[in-house]
Design brief:
TIM Barrel, alpha/beta, 11 helices, globular, 8-stranded parallel barrel
Length: about 280
């Protein structure tokens, strides 16, 4: 089916009281695995390409974006394209022509005042060009600099930030951490509930790979809507590749290890999608 917008998918999940998975795409195999999993469980999904992934692809957005868009357009479930953790204004301005319906503008390394100013300008530009814009206030752990572990988003400040910037969704710091390879994070469910009640736009959970299934379900019940997942796919991918290449006759044909790697990611995504929808696995 044709690409749908991220705004439509997130709005549908919020109305149904479920979460929607937004999975990071690094290679074509990532996109294929994510969409295959969504089709298997009959659920919508968001394909995310981060600024770091663009840098990996030699700074060129369109090749990976066009590949992901082709995979999405052939899907039997709703799929959208999202440009994630954009700090470069020039990259944000490439999003529309590259097929994205949404972006996450990341000014969290700036002071609060500068973050508000930069994000307000990004939101105005995005809305003028039909883009749904997500932003981040309280820093999510797991990165250097401003992204310090243990940071929590204040509900009052979050509400003021959304009003000042006009963004369509807000990523909040509630206990998760980027790039975790073990699922040991504990979410502050009371804080999520207070943020849900204070903030008039959907809440986004970053760093979800480190959150156990019961915590993810509880986070959605308490108000998280868009749930970003990246590292979990790479853990599955790398484990499958290591298993094949660690055998007695490791192949030289990359298809011999990329095929099981793609299958492993598909299993991971399918499982996580059903976790996020709880008792509503047929939400589509």
């Amino acid at each position: 089916m044709p690409l749908v917008t991220t705004g439509e998918i997130v709005k549908g999940a919020q109305a149904a009281g479920t979460g929607v998975g937004a999975f990071n795409v690094i290679t074509l195999e990532h996109a294929e695995a994510i969409v295959a999993a969504a089709e298997r469980v009959g659920l919508p999904v968001i394909l995310q390409v981060s600024e770091n992934a663009v840098k990996f692809h030699l700074g060129r957005l369109r090749p990976i974006a066009m590949a992901a868009a082709e995979v999405a357009a052939a899907a039997g479930v709703p799929v959208s394209l999202h440009l994630d953790h954009v700090e470069d204004d020039d990259l944000l301005r490439q999003a529309v022509d590259a097929g994205f319906s949404s972006a996450m503008y990341d000014a969290s390394k700036l002071s609060y005042r500068d973050n508000v100013a930069a994000t307000r300008a990004a939101a105005r530009w995005a809305h003028d060009h039909g883009l749904w814009l997500e932003a981040e206030l309280g820093e999510v752990g797991g990165k250097d600099g401003a992204h310090a572990p243990g940071v929590r988003t204040d509900p009052v400040e979050a509400a003021a930030y959304v009003e000042a910037t006009g963004v369509d969704a807000l990523a909040v710091a509630v206990g998760s951490s980027h790039a975790m390879t073990t699922r040991t994070a504990s979410l502050d469910l009371d804080l999520i509930s207070r943020l849900r009640d204070a903030v008039p736009v959907p809440l986004v959970l970053h760093g979800s790979s480190g959150v156990p299934d019961p915590e993810l379900r509880a986070g959605v019940r308490h108000g998280m809507v868009k749930v970003n997942i990246g590292t979990a796919l790479n853990v599955a991918f790398s484990a499958a590749v290591r298993e094949v290449l660690g055998g007695p006759q490791p192949p030289v044909d990359p298809r011999k290890y990329l095929r099981p790697a793609r299958a492993a990611m598909t299993e991971s995504v399918a499982h996580l999608l059903t976790v996020l929808t709880g008792e509503h696995p047929a939400h589509a």
